[in-house]
């Protein structure tokens, strides 16, 4: 009976933690990144406000830092034609499918602009992650059709 109880407790403890795949992803994402380019699944000119903050042009070239031990980060927009400065956020990586390697990434801004919107967050797909490159995708509906925003990062 004691062995059965010990087995059940062990299984419970192991099931509560993040999977090995998510833990590995957090190690890889740690550090400094640059958002190099942003593309859209459909051709055309779009007036997209990414993360309810700035345009595509402002985000391209922005510097990002991820601190996975406390799930926080900061990005810095430095383009002269944009509202420059640091923006803080918290993030969570949730496993979607271990076989395909796709994850959900939830990013919640914590800067002054979003404080009144306490539960405002953005769900993105972490579609690719390696030691040097990372890709996010955000799926939206535009005029009733699926639309995907792809963001490509390189590690510094």
From TrEMBL:
UniProt key word Signal: yes
Keyword line: Signal
Source organism superkingdom: Bacteria
Signal peptide positions on this chain: 1-18
Listed name of the protein: Lipocalin
């Amino acid at each position: 009976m004691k062995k059965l109880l010990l087995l059940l407790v062990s299984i419970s403890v192991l099931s509560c933690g993040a999977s090995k795949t998510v833990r590995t992803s957090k190690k890889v994402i740690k550090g400094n990144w640059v958002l190099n380019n942003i593309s859209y699944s459909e051709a055309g000119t779009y007036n997209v406000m990414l993360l309810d903050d700035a345009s595509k042009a402002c985000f391209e070239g922005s510097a990002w830092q991820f601190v996975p031990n406390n799930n926080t980060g900061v990005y810095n927009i430095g383009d002269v034609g944009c509202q420059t400065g640091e923006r803080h956020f918290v993030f969570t990586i949730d496993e979607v499918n271990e076989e395909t390697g796709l994850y959900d990434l939830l990013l919640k801004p914590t800067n002054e602009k979003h404080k009144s919107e306490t539960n405002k967050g953005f769900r993105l797909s972490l579609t690719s992650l390696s030691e040097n490159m990372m890709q996010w995708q955000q799926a939206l509906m535009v005029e009733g059709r699926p639309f995907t925003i792809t963001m490509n990062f390189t590690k510094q």
